[in-house]
Design a protein that fits this description.
EC 6.3.2.5; five-stranded parallel beta sheet; DNA/pantothenate-metab_flavo_C; decarboxylase; eight-stranded mixed beta sheet; alpha/beta; 24% strand; magnesium; globular; metal-binding
């Protein structure tokens, strides 16, 4: 995305005084190497973690935290007007408190008051600080004003502590910022979204399993784009070796039964469920406790048992009114032949609102960065999505989901 005047996209990178400031160096490099012009605005205390020469060398622009430098240029107003995006990473509890209450003690907080472009906060702090009622209230205030506040990741914090409060990986933060710069709407703000991704594994013995070729890339693209559009995302990930998308709570699972339990639990408070995982239809009925040894002759056959159909179960629960139910339920159907005919039959059988049907095999869909699909819409016309990046397909799916949510909203 270029600026309105056709120049390079202009980003203000605000840096808070947290140990995660070192990660912002990598985020800055991702911006500059992809053609963005970046001004870095560290707080005074942030310069205790990473010094001014580092930010200046990586950005190619002068760096200051003060409103009193180059006063004739009125930087506390000019920088905010200049930016196409302001991203604060790490966003400390202190910065978000000052932003929520309109305080302006330095150049960064002045810029946050004058910016009229999208603003993204990437919080990083100890779990206790993130969970404190004051921080939660400040986050809610910023979100109500239209800011995108990305939930922090779970992982290693300062010292030996572990919990929620870790800054998401820079590459994932960059992807969210890239989607925001592309002008995607914030039409999922306040919505709780559950996405399944990857491929389940059904144990034969402690060593072997029945699995499939799904990499989880499409489900992760759905999670990444939903977070950029403001959703609270729970990602149920089956055997996926990808970095956690920024802003998503990742629940790792292995088998179809594990996935069912995790999805049904998360769906109780969800507005939307998107079942993008490749879930095994069958599992070994009698998995062995020890490795099956190779012996001469015919191998013993593996007796299979049918796995539950999680998508159909979700739809049936909603139809019967059995407890809280998502407003929109979407599924994926991977087909190798008779793609549309099989997809239409599956849509009718499952009872979901949307079914994303794509052809797989021969290098298509599984494990690739691109995808193509037809979205079958209950009671509507199919929507064809041409081959392109999986994030583009994901955004089209969210366009359809958001429209469906508006149609089913009270008073619509």
């Amino acid at each position: 995305m270029a600026s309105q005047d056709g120049s390079r996209p202009r980003v203000v990178l605000g840096v808070g005084a947290g140990i995660a400031a070192y990660k912002a160096c990598e985020l800055l490099r991702l911006f500059t190497e992809s053609g963005h012009e970046v001004r870095v605005l560290p707080t005074r205390d942030a310069l205790r973690f990473v010094g001014e020469p580092t930010w200046a060398a990586l950005s190619g622009n002068p760096v200051t935290s003060e409103v009193w430098e180059s006063v004739h240029e009125v930087p506390h107003v000019r920088v905010g007007r200049w930016a196409d995006l302001v991203v604060v990473a790490p966003a400390t509890a202190d910065i978000m408190a000052r932003a929520a209450h309109g305080l302006a003690a330095d150049l960064l907080t002045n810029t946050l008051l004058t910016a009229r472009c999208p603003v993204v906060f990437a919080p990083a702090m100890h779990t206790e600080m993130w969970e404190h009622p004051a921080t939660r209230a400040n986050v809610a205030t910023l979100r109500e004003r239209g800011c995108l506040v990305i939930d922090p990741a779970v992982g290693r914090l300062t010292g030996a502590d572990t919990g929620r409060g870790r800054l998401p990986e820079p590459a994932e933060l960059f992807e969210v910022c890239r989607r925001v710069l592309a002008g995607r709407p914030r039409d999922l703000a306040g919505r709780r979204v559950v996405i399944s991704a990857g491929g389940t594994r059904e144990a034969i013995d402690p060593v072997r399993f029945i699995g499939n070729r799904s990499s989880g890339r499409q489900g992760y693209a759905l999670a990444r784009t939903a977070a950029a559009r403001g959703a609270e995302v729970t990602l149920v990930a089956a055997n996926v070796g990808l970095p956690d998308p920024a802003g998503a709570t990742v629940v790792p699972v292995e088998s179809a039964l594990d996935l069912r339990a995790a999805v049904l639990a998360a769906a109780e408070s969800a507005d939307v469920v998107v079942m993008a995982a490749a879930v095994a239809d069958f599992r070994p009925a009698d998995p062995r406790d020890s490795k099956i040894k190779k012996v001469p002759g015919e191998p013993e056959p593996i007796r299979l048992a049918e796995n539950p159909d999680v998508l159909a179960e979700l739809c049936e629960r909603r139809r019967r009114g059995a407890g809280p139910a998502p407003g929109v339920i979407a599924g994926f159907a991977a087909e190798t032949d008779d793609v549309l005919a099989n997809g239409r039959a599956k849509l009718a059988r499952k009872g979901c609102d949307l079914l994303v049907v794509n052809q797989v095999g021969a290098g298509l869909a599984f494990g690739t960065p691109d995808n193509a699909a037809v979205v079958l819409v209950a009671g509507g016309d199919p929507v064809e999505i041409p081959r392109g990046p999986k994030e583009e397909l994901a955004d089209t799916v969210w366009d359809l989901v958001a429209a469906r949510l508006r149609e089913t909203a009270p008073g619509a």
